[in-house]
Write a structure and sequence with these properties.
With 327 residues, the protein is of the alpha/beta class. Helix content is 49%, strand content 15%. Helix 1 (9-26) runs antiparallel to helix 2, helix 4 (71-78) packs across helix 13 (275-294) and helix 10 crosses helix 11. The longest helix has 21 residues, at 32-52. The termini are far apart.
């Protein structure tokens, strides 16, 4: 059975039966084709029911799905002439961040993003997309290169957060993230960020100071993981599901808060079910928004970028209990 989440189990069971019936139909069973069509109709209804009513915690699980397409999967399908570049010219090459030169619909661009791993070895090398400081500095080096040569920047975000180990802190993790935030706010080229899966804390923010920020429909964007939030607030990591609801971390929540500019649809059942269709959706969204921001004069674009982040967020003040006059 292929990897799946708990709430996907009924659907996966039907899909496996469909594959069995398809094999039987090829083998000459006259009843198999009719049964396969019946099961496909049932699967379509169940798929719509499951994925139209996902909770925040289920979307968190989906954003972390190990079969979900990562940055390099999108680069392969959306861009041409990709030439990966390495190193931060200060310390080393962090494989948790990938990027380089590419063309998007013929336009030269800089593309950069977090990269998780598929195999155990790759997950160890890339630390599941959790960058060291040199990863953020590599990303900034590439973005400055884009500014120097007038190339738009497209950033893909997919990380639990910046690597939390002492070696990262010792090499200036906080400074590297802060420098990215400051420098990206003033880069004189159009910047577009797309959240592919997890958008966690400062590790995500370091690639998100952009003119347009988009999220895939089942991606999440949060200051802290639900598990971490539950452990801090209630000293109970098991209350992660409750924390996920309180954090307002889904794409629709984030859009309602005015933090992002649009939601990119995913294939039925999630991006992991059809890499090519997911890439086409991302490609279409990039094309639309990149065309719009490239048409804006640079001084105006910088002003709009500044104002975008100044007005971001919603606040509710609690005035406390009412007091009687004179008390």
């Amino acid at each position: 059975m292929k990897p799946h989440l708990d709430f996907e189990a009924p659907l996966v069971e039907i899909e496996e039966r469909i594959e069995d019936r398809r094999a039987a139909a090829v083998g000459g069973d006259p009843r198999a084709k009719d049964e396969m069509r019946r099961l496909e109709a049932k699967a379509e209804k169940l798929r719509a029911k499951i994925y139209s009513g996902l909770t925040s915690w289920q979307k968190t699980q989906l954003a972390r799905h190990p079969g979900r397409p990562y940055t390099l999967d999108y680069i392969e399908r959306v861009f041409t002439d990709f030439e990966e570049m390495h190193g931060d010219r200060l310390y080393g090459d962090d494989l948790a961040i990938v990027g380089g030169l590419a063309r998007f619909h013929g336009t030269p661009v800089i593309v950069v993003g977090h990269q998780k791993g598929r195999t155990d070895r790759e997950r160890a090398l890339r630390r599941q997309g959790m960058p060291f400081p040199e990863g953020f500095r590599k990303a900034l080096r590439l973005m400055r290169l884009g500014e120097r040569f007038g190339k738009p920047i497209i950033a893909f975000v997919d990380t639990t957060g910046a690597f939390p180990g002492p070696e990262a802190e010792g090499r200036g993790q906080a400074e590297a993230i802060a420098r990215n935030l400051r420098e990206m706010s003033a880069l004189r080229v159009p910047i577009l960020s797309v959240l592919l899966g997890e958008g966690g804390s400062g590790g995500a923010l370091a690639l998100c100071v952009a003119d347009r920020i988009l999220m895939l429909a089942h991606a999440i964007f949060t200051v802290i993981s639900p598990e971490g939030c539950a452990a801090i607030l209630w000293r109970e990591g098991e209350r992660a599901e409750e924390a996920a609801e309180a954090l307002k971390l889904t794409a629709q929540d984030i859009l309602d808060l005015g933090v992002i500019d649009g939601i990119v649809p995913e294939p039925p059942g999630g991006a992991h079910r059809d890499f090519d269709l997911a890439a086409r959706e991302v490609e279409g969204a990039i094309a639309q928004h990149l065309e719009e921001i490239r048409a804006i004069p640079m001084e105006e674009l910088l002003r709009l970028r500044y104002e975008k982040f100044r007005r971001m967020g919603r606040f509710i003040e609690n005035p406390g209990p009412a007091r009687e006059p004179g008390t």
